[in-house]
Amino acid sequence: MNIFMLLQRAAKRLRTQDTAFHEATETTVAILRSSGVLPTKRSSLNGGLHKLVAGMIVEAHEHDTTVDVGTRRVGTFARFGYSTKVISYLDKAVETNLLSSQTGRAKGKLAIGTLLDRYLSKTLA
Questions:
Q1: pTM for this prediction
Q2: N or C: which end of the chain has fewer CB within 10 A?
Q3: pLDDT band at 43; cut points 50, 70, 90
Q4: What is the DSSP letter of 73?
Q5: Closest CA to 94 of 85, 84, 83, 107
């Protein structure tokens, strides 16, 4: 599913009282932080962005789809109202095998990696 659609859906769900989604998102944030994908410094300032990225991954997992990154242009992300850091976070997730890509970076179809898949399957079960 298109990354912008996933980000939009995740943002919408983060405003709800869906406890299972919020729990899975918090688990994903913790995994991303402990793996070095998301920085721990200034997390109080960037916590919303971190939760949005994690929510996007949870949303993709729930719909059994990939995160489709059609463009890496920061201008496109800014135009849609999303942080330009999203791409660098996804690049790090690919480097740490939390997401898999055929290109070795956040481009094309990114599949949920084994570790995230296991945790999310347990959390959302």
A1: 0.93
A2: C
A3: low
A4: -
A5: 107
